[in-house]
Write a structure and sequence with these properties.
- The protein has 207 residues and is an alpha/beta fold.
- It folds into two domains: 125 residues, Conserved hypothetical protein from pyrococcus furiosus pfu- 392566-001, ParB domain, CATH 3.90.1530.10; 58 residues, Helicase, Ruva Protein, domain 3 (Orthogonal Bundle).
- The protein is 40% helix and 13% strand.
- It is built from seven helices and six strands; from the N terminus they run ββαββαβαβαααα.
- It has a four-stranded mixed sheet with strand order 1-5-3-4. A two-stranded parallel ribbon has the order 2-6.
- Strand 3 and strand 4 form a beta hairpin.
- Helix 4 packs across helix 5.
- The longest helix has 25 residues.
- It is globular, with a radius of gyration of 18 Å.
């Protein structure tokens, strides 16, 4: 078993990567696509070297992505065929059910759909191109970049913020008026109701 402190680096085809979540925020994907277009032509190899995809090797030696799903999908949409991966752990000797139980217990999977409902691991897509858009995940990403909360090491922290906003901002607002939704999210992020969330920055003192 390999540890995260001793990564193995090797290129793999993006189409061979297996997700460990159901959704992404397509606004996030679009942002990463733009960044690739800005840097890819001149610094493509350097960019890929700085943004390796962490995976766990699962049954049949398949690489399961445990972070950077948005980047993997963005690169695929931009026509990139290969990425570098870091093998965090080799669990390829496990049966499929045992493998998913281990991922679940180590917070290496997030089987929630675009309505925030937990699903069976069998509902997780088989490829990154099949990932489903969750507009609230895009809202959470935009909220963090706008200073609504701090980056945190808690697994899937932005999905927790997404679910918080899902219960408070109507979906049509997020889908049709993203800027208004972000303004509402910034206000909600300052409240005590959000204080349990990772990276909460608290209310701004106006003294």
């Amino acid at each position: 078993m390999h540890s995260a402190r001793e990564p193995l680096l090797k290129p793999v085809k993006i189409k061979d990567l297996r997700p460990t979540q159901i959704t992404v925020g397509m606004h996030e994907v679009a942002s990463k696509r733009k960044r690739w277009r800005d840097e890819g032509d001149e610094k493509g190899a350097e960019f890929l070297g700085r943004h390796m995809i962490p995976v766990v090797m699962g049954p049949k030696k398949r690489p399961f992505v445990i972070d950077h799903h948005h980047l993997a999908l963005a690169l695929q949409k931009e026509g990139v065929e290969h990425v570098l991966i870091t093998v965090v752990s080799d669990l390829s000797h496990l049966e499929k059910d045992a493998f998913w139980i281990v991922l679940d217990n180590r917070s290496w999977m997030h089987p929630f759909d675009d309505k925030g409902r937990r699903r069976d691991y069998k509902d997780i897509p088989g490829s990154v191109e099949e990932l489903v858009d969750d507009p609230y995940r895009s809202l959470a990403g935009a909220l963090r970049r706008a200073g609504g909360f701090a980056k945190d090491t808690t697994p899937f922290s932005e999905f927790l913020w997404a679910d918080f906003m899902r219960r408070r901002i109507k979906r049509p607002i997020v889908q049709k008026d993203f800027e208004r939704a972000l303004d509402l999210a910034l206000e909600l992020a300052k409240g005590q109701d959000a204080s349990y969330l990772p990276g909460w920055c608290g209310p701004v003192d106006k003294d």
